[in-house]
Design goal:
alpha/beta; Spore Coat Polysaccharide Biosynthesis Protein SpsA, Chain A; 2 domains; eight-stranded mixed β-sheet; five-stranded mixed β-sheet; binds magnesium ion
Length: 383
């Protein structure tokens, strides 16, 4: 597979004068992290993002240092008077094939939006997330004017994704006397193509101080929940088992309707448990022939997306694999990294352990493999 380097460029240079506060909104606290740190963490934990570069405003070095805490990032680039100057300064400082340009004032960046943008870049010079316009639009003033038909209108969000040469060329060609509403318009003006993908209401920009208060309220309203999972599969004749999506050579295989991945099944059940949404058998009935031999990552992706759709955040997964053989130790890191990839989390937020049962019971007799998992999540109290 071709490896392409993708950089997230976060523009945090704004002075935030519309917020009516001394501190620019991107450096304000939102829950336990700064607004900027939320955006940084969303990109840094995404497996398709290779590095994160932040552009700050003149005189914001101290606020930036406080906002990123112990995170290790390339030194920030200092931007210019206008957003366009700040983006250009950032583009000059990065190295890669693709860039996602993002406003720091949008702290919540769903991993699925990043996936959609990167996929769309295969067929276009740029890609932007958009949402339909729900409110009535009309000309304003002291008296209400005519309604503007909203058919075909969309709201454009960030991050905006581009092939790096295309966005650099668009900035170089731009008439400096003109204002640009965003980078996508500059690429279009330079003759490039910009695709649209589905945006997300979670990407809403914090513009007014009430937005920040509402976002702070939502963050503090999340409550911790814990879900547990347990699964067992018996051995049958074969030459390898699938554990956490990894093929592990063995003198038997695991018996089951899907690929019998006891590890992914138990993690799926732990997440479903934490959101109170039944179990894996409810969502993927074993009686349904379409799951015969299916790779189990689709079950886990389904649980992950259900959690995200309800406003939840997956904080940590701890798995224990219980068997006498095969030896799990040499595959632990691979299993952990693969679960992290499927869940779009840093491997630091996944733990994989293994134990035997001292030759006692069915696992001790080598009749099969058991696995258990605990998932720690946060989600809105009444979701
Ligand atoms: Mg199972």
């Amino acid at each position: 597979m071709q490896t392409r380097r993708t950089v997230a460029l976060i523009v945090a240079a704004g002075s935030g004068t519309r917020m009516g506060s001394d501190i620019p909104k991107q450096y304000a606290m939102l829950g336990s992290r700064s607004v900027l740190a939320h955006a940084i963490d969303a990109f840094a934990s995404h497996p398709a993002i290779d590095s994160v570069q932040v552009v700050i405003g003149a005189g914001q070095a101290d606020a930036y240092a406080a906002a990123i805490g112990t995170r290790t990032l390339p030194p920030p680039v200092t931007g210019g008077a206008h957003r366009r100057d700040s983006v250009a300064a950032g583009l000059a400082a990065i190295d890669g094939d693709r860039v996602l340009i993002h406003d720091a004032a949008r702290p919540h960046v769903p991993a699925a939006v990043i996936d959609r943008l990167i996929a769309a870049l295969d067929a276009a010079d740029g890609a932007v997330p958009v949402l339909p316009v729900a409110d009535t639009l009309a000309h304003g003033g002291t008296a209400l004017g005519a309604v503007v038909p909203r058919d075909g209108l969309v709201r454009v969000q960030t991050p905006q994704a581009f092939a790096l040469p295309a966005i650099r060329a668009a900035h170089a060609a731009w008439n400096a006397a003109q204002e640009a509403t965003d980078d996508a318009q500059m690429v279009r003006a330079a003759g490039g193509t910009v695709a649209t993908v589905a945006g997300d209401p979670a990407l809403e920009k914090l513009t007014y101080s009430e937005d920040l208060m509402m976002a702070q309220q939502r963050a503090s309203d999340l409550v911790v929940r814990v879900g547990s999972g347990f699964d067992v599969h018996a051995f049958e004749p074969g030459d390898h088992v699938i554990l956490g999506g990894i093929a592990v050579p063995h003198s038997a295989k695991l018996k089951g309707h899907s690929d019998a991945d006891v590890v992914l099944h138990t993690v799926t059940d732990a997440i479903l448990g934490a959101i109170g949404d039944g179990d894996i058998g409810d969502h993927f009935p074993p009686s349904d022939p379409q799951w015969r031999g299916a790779a189990s990552d689709r079950f886990l992706i389904h649980a992950r997306d259900l959690l995200t759709a309800r406003g939840g955040i997956l904080d940590f997964v701890d798995v224990t694999i219980i068997c006498e053989a095969p030896k799990v130790g040499p595959h632990r890191a691979g299993i952990r990294d693969n679960i992290a990839r499927i869940l779009q989390l840093s491997p630091k937020r996944i733990s994989v352990k293994a134990t035997t049962t001292e030759r006692l019971g069915f696992t001790g007799r080598g009749e099969g493999i058991a696995a258990q998992a605990v998932a720690t999540i946060r989600m809105p109290e009444d979701a």
